[in-house]
Amino acid sequence: MIELTDVSKSFILHNQGGAVIPVMAGASLRVGAGECVALTGASGAGKSTLMRVIYGNYLAASGQVRVGGLDVARGQPREILQLRRETLGYVSQFLRVVPRVPTLDVVAEPLLALGVDRQAARSRASALLRRLNIPENLWGLSPTTFSGGEQQRVNIARGFAHDYPALLLDEPTASLDAENRETVLSLIDEAKARGAAIVGIFHDAEARDRVCDRAVDVSRFAPERMK
Questions:
Q1: Total of domains in the chain
Q2: How many helices (DSSP H) and strands (DSSP E) are in the chain?
Q3: Residue 92 lies in a domain
Q4: I need a labelling partner for 39 at 20 to 30 A (CA). Which of 20, 45, 100, 137 fits?
Q5: Gap between the Cα atoms of 181 and 179, Å rounded
Q6: Are 45 and 26 contained in the same domain?
Q7: Full residue range of the structural domain in which residue 143 is found
Q8: Which residue intervals of 28-177 are DSSP H helices?
Q9: 26-84 pLDDT, tens per residue?
């Protein structure tokens, strides 16, 4: 479902005379249905860069980045947007939403974008918000007014609203108490059970060991100059 073949990535520093900085080379990775793979490595090794390459936020300089039937490295913008709506979910560390949109609609939005009936979408959103202990009296408020931990739980609920065939998880248990951490790990297990291919970054070693089938150290994808 997620397959990278000989992927490289460089950054161009336009304010430094167009200097080219290679940050990744020869990255190959395959994640099958129902599998969760953890990206590991020291800070700055390229974990987040690799996730953004898979999601299409960063364009690979070479190689293939296949998610489902699409090569993200060569996909057209409309194809990337369709992939994100239907196939590839991403739970980042930060909640980015339009101000003043109620929390219930923020969580339901991925389903509404797919044409799911509004009542059904809100029902699914309600169930997730309850599981993640967001009080019902907050659902009509914008999550931009919430605490960091509450925003993280809304972000997770939104990321799991649609049953994406592929998921990217960036520190999904960060800032969570024990009860909500357990809920998130259960959501990941449920996604695996229905066949989702998952790539995640977990600094929580216990959580990583519980839900991940294997780990890939991204430092092995560093260009020669960085090794």
A1: 2
A2: 7, 9
A3: no
A4: 20
A5: 5
A6: yes
A7: 97-162
A8: 47-55, 77-86, 103-112, 118-131, 148-159
A9: 999 999 999 999 999 998 899 999 999 999 999 999 999 999 999 999 999 999 999 99
